Amino acid sequence: MTRSERDLVTALRNELAAIDPARACDRIAEAAGLGDEVGAREPAVARLAVRLRRAAREGMTGAPFEWATAAEHCRTAWLRGRFLARGSLSLAGGRTHLEFVVAPDDAPILAARLREVGLPASWRVRRARGVVTWKSSEAVGTFLRRIGAAGALLELEARQVSRALRGELNRVLNAESANLQRAVAAAGRQLDAIAVLDADGRLPRQPYVVRLIADARRETPEATLTELAERLELHRSAVQRALERIERLAEAEPAAPTLPTDSPAGPPTSMIRAHA
Predict the structure, then answer these.
(1) Is the pLDDT assigned to residue 188 strictly greater than 80?
(2) Which residue of 1, 10, 26, 138 has the smallest Cβ count within 10 Å?
């Protein structure tokens, strides 16, 4: 990930760790999600663990957490703690990838719980660790929004939209550039063909519309077929056919001049009679 992407992930995790559940049951659930192995992974998460332990010592979180009987808000708090303790988010290469790394036996349990709340995820065992994964931006966004990452998620979605717009703009620009290059190459061929026909005298013998289009092409070599058609008030297909005809004629050898049909190959009849 780039530094900017890492900063965004850090901001997202800090936002989640700063949430202070108002309900005692949510504090119990989030503490259960964090587990006992938080360590010093991140200062914000470590501070969250301290707050929850202090609440436990003060008697606010004495009951255990049970997923099967927990309310929806308690399950959300547990998932938030599980993500902070065992989850990671990657935005590298424009792809959103979220995974939990847990004990092998815990992976199918976590996947089942996520499926229960409408967020099915894939899981596998990788290097003796259980890995529960989302690779869908939509699924990741839904999960992060559910556990409370509203502010950072807006920034993430804004970046994704911006990235998508840049990609679409680049695609359009590349397509336009390719079309322009093809148009320039075609106009160059057409101008060369017109010059050939004009030099050997075949252009003046072409139909009026072909001569009209040839003149318009010479006057506006940068014009597209559509622009030529609009200028001459013709159909675009007529302009295209005329220019294709010009190119075909230029590629072909000019026909040898023929004698008029009323001129005999031999001497005039009057001369033959005079000699007789």
Answers:
(1) yes
(2) 138
The pLDDT assigned to 220 comes to: 92
- What is residue 44's three-state secondary structure? helix
Residue 132 makes CB contacts below 8 A (sequence gap 6+) with 99, 100, 102, 107, 110, 111, 114, 121, 122, 123
What local confidence, expressed as pLDDT, does residue 86 receive? 93
Q: In angstroms, rounded to a whole number, what is the distance separating the alpha carbons of residues 175 and 197?
A: 33
Number of residues assigned to the chain: 276
Report d(CA 75, CA 71) in Å as an integer. 6
Report yes or no: 92 and 99 within 8 Å, Cβ to Cβ: no
Torsions phi, psi for 122 (to 5 deg): -85, 155
Question: Which two tokens mark 71?
Answer: 């309310």
3-state secondary structure of 87: strand
Q: Is the pLDDT of residue 60 over 70?
A: no
**Domain covering 3-148 assigned CATH 3.10.28.10 in the classification:** yes
Kindly state the average pLDDT of the residues 240-260. 80
Looking at the chain, the domain(s) classified CATH 3.10.28.10 span 3-148
Q: Are 104 and 125 in contact (CB under 8 A)?
A: yes
